[in-house]
Amino acid sequence: MTPKYKRILLKLSGEALMGEDAFGINRQTIETIVGEIAQVSRMGVEIGVVIGGGNIFRGVAPGAAGMDRATADYMGMLATVMNALALQDAMRHAGLASRALSALNIEQVVEPYIRGKAIRYLEEGKIVIFAAGTGNPFFTTDTAAALRGSEMGAEIVLKATKVDGVYTADPKKDPRAQRYARVSFDEAIVKNLQVMDATALTLCRDQKLPINVFSIFKRDALRRVVTGEDEGTLVHV
Known about the structure:
The protein is 39% helix and 18% strand. The chain is an alpha/beta fold. It has a 9-stranded mixed β-sheet, with helices on both faces. Strand 1, helix 1 (27-41) and strand 2 (46-51) form a beta-alpha-beta unit. The radius of gyration is 17 Å and the shape is globular.
């Protein structure tokens, strides 16, 4: 099938790597996710990935209670670097060429983020994993995804979650909840649909960068989004 998008930015939460575990990285889950990414990569789509750190930081969060917010955010950024290394290793085992780039400078472990280098890697067909968020405290990895997507010239930001789209209500609590197939940025903001945090949503709207929210655990869902099928929820201008 022909992909609708040439270059995408995939936002993966750290929690997605946990599987059914309480925290940490579930190897089978990460291999499944990499399998979905590989399917799209082999279609010739250029892929950037922003990874979160909640699966690791959750384990230390009780100890972070009362901690300075900036310090806690830097801890979270370091957690994303650990996830990026795990993701890169899983991709290597799957035969995928990838590069992990960090917004925090830890050169012994991971390459520093340089925009031109990242774009070159994408053009070479390598999957680029963006770690450490924006490199600044007080910004979420949602905002990092919107920022990197804009910088890389991505055609769409794909937010991978455990739910297969954005609903009118919580589908686990309300059986009458309906999935939005499409929704405008303004409607998402006014109705507080929690697609992404307000900073990320506003940045994507201003850059006319659409967002698709879908389930990474639904088989072939990523491929269907990339080929333009009705999968997840498309947030558009």
